[in-house]
Amino acid sequence: MSSVIMRHYWGAPSGGALVGDAAALALEKAGFKPVISGTFKFDPSLHKEWYGIDISKYKTYTLTSFTIFGLMLAAFSWVPAKKAVKQENARLLFTDLGLYKPIKEDFKNLKVFEYIHFPAEAFYEEKYRYLGFYYKDTNFISSRYSRFPFNLYYETYIRFFKKYNRKNPFEDADMVVTNSKWTAKIAKEIYGEEPPALYSPLSPKIKIVEKPKSFDERKDMVFMLGRFSSDKRYDWVIENIAIKLKESKVKLVIAGSAVLKVQLDYLNYCYKKAVNLGLNATIVSEENKVNQALTEDYDVIFLPNASRDLINYLMDNSKVFFHATIHEHLGAAIAEAMARGLPVVVYKSGGAWMDLAKEGYYGLGYENEQEAVENIMKFIKDKGAAELYYQRSLERVRELGIENFEKELIATLKKILP
C-alpha cells in the first residue's frame, strides 16, 4: 500500500522539507510504502546529513533536473505526483501544496491529506487583500517581480497556479491540518473552517540540551539562521540592527543555505551592504576558519551552508537568537535555537510569535528596530533575564519532538483510513 508525498522542492534544507521527511517516517510506521514526489531532481542522501532522516530508500518521482524557471515549474508539481500515484497504485496523497486538482479529477478514490504551511490564496487572490499578505503589497515579491519582464513571468505563474490549485481543502481533501494556530486562523478566514495545528517537528539531529551553557560561558554574539533569501530580511538587519550592535561590540553571525543562484546573489548583496555601511564583514565558507573569524574584529560574519555541528556550536556560544522574518508561519530555525537553550527575539507576528514565543512568555518580540535592539541587548547584558529564558526555551520545545509529530499524524490519518 503506497502513499505519495508531494511537495515542490526537496533540494535544500527547509522546514517544509523536514515536514515531508517526518511524514514519510510516520506513513511508513502506519503501514504505507512512502514514495517521494518533487519538481526537481535532488540528492536524497543529503537529508540524512541535514536532519538525520534517510529518505534515500524511498522511490522518487521528479519532473526535471533543470532548476531554471523554478517558480513557474512549481505550478506543475502535480505532474510527477500524478505519475507516481498511477504507477504505484497509491491509496494516499500527502501534500503541502494545493496543486492536486488534476490528480483528484483522475483518481476519485485517492485519499488526500493536506498540510498547510500557509494558505496560498492569501497571496494570490485579491479578494483576500484585506488580510495583508497580497503579493502586490509584499516587498520581497514586488521588488523582484514588479518590472518587465519579471512581472509577466510572475503573472503567468499565478495563472497556472490558479488553474491547477484545488478550490477548498475542506471540500477537496479528506484531512486538513496546518503548521500553527496562527496559520489556522488565517485558513479559517479563507476557507471557512479552522484546521487543527500539527506543529512541524524538530529534526532528529536537534538534541534538546539538558543543561545549556551558562551566561558567563557565552560570547556577546547574536546568531541568525535561515536560507539566504530576501524574505529573511537580512539586508534590513544589516542596515538597522548590525550598526547598533557594533556600537556595543556585539558580533552578528548569520548562517544559512546558499545553494541556488538567487540565494548566492542575496548573500553577496548583504555582504556588500554591510561593507558599504562601514561594517567589518566577512563570508566564511571553510568551517575550519570559523573560530579564527570569531576571534577577529568582525562585526558581521556570514556562514553559507554551515554544518549542523557548527550551527549547534554557534547556538551554544551565542547569547541570543534573532529572527527578522515578518509573519513567520512557525519557524523551524527558532525552534532549533530554543532546543539549545538559546533565548529568542522574534517579530511580533505569525506562528513564531503566537505559537513558539507565546506572545512574550517563551521569547521576546519587537515591531521596530529600536524594540529589537532593546530586547537583544536585554539578553546580552541581563544575566537573570537570559538564564530565565534559557529554561523557558527548553520548556517550550519539548513537545516538538519528531516522535510527537509522528504519533499525531498517524492518529489523524486513522480518521480517514480506519
In words, what does this structure look like?
Helix content is 44%, strand content 15%. With 418 residues, it is α/β, with parallel strands linked by helices. The chain folds into 2 domains: 2-201 and 401-413, 3-Layer(aba) Sandwich (Rossmann fold), CATH 3.40.50; 215-400, Glycogen Phosphorylase B (Rossmann fold), CATH 3.40.50.2000. The mean pLDDT is 94.
Brief descriptors of the model:
418 residues; alpha/beta; Rossmann fold; 6-stranded parallel sheet; 44% helix
CATH architecture of the largest domain: 3-Layer(aba) Sandwich
Distance between the termini: 14 Å
The figure for the number of domains is 2
The description of the largest β-sheet is:
7 strands, parallel
Helix and strand topology:
Layout lengths: L1 E5 L8 H15 L3 E8 L4 H7 L7 E6 L5 H5 L3 H11 L3 E4 L5 H6 L4 E6 L4 H4 L14 H7 L4 H15 L4 H4 L2 E4 L2 H11 L29 E5 L8 H14 L3 E6 L4 H16 L4 E3 L6 H6 L4 E5 L3 H10 L2 E3 L9 H8 L4 E4 L2 H7 L7 E3 L2 H13 L1 H15 L4 H12 L5
Parallel strand pairs: 1-2, 1-4, 2-3, 4-5, 5-6, 7-8, 7-11, 8-10, 9-10, 11-12, 12-13
Helix pairs in contact: 1-19, 11-12, 11-17, 15-18
Concise overview:
This protein is of the alpha/beta class and 418 residues long. It has helices at 15-29, 45-51, 70-74, 78-88, 101-106, 121-124, 139-145, 150-164, 169-172, 181-191, 234-247, 261-276, 290-295, 308-317, 332-339, 350-356, 369-381, 383-397, 402-413, and strands at residues 2-6, 33-40, 59-64, 92-95, 111-116, 175-178, 221-225, 251-256, 281-283, 300-304, 320-322, 344-347, 364-366.
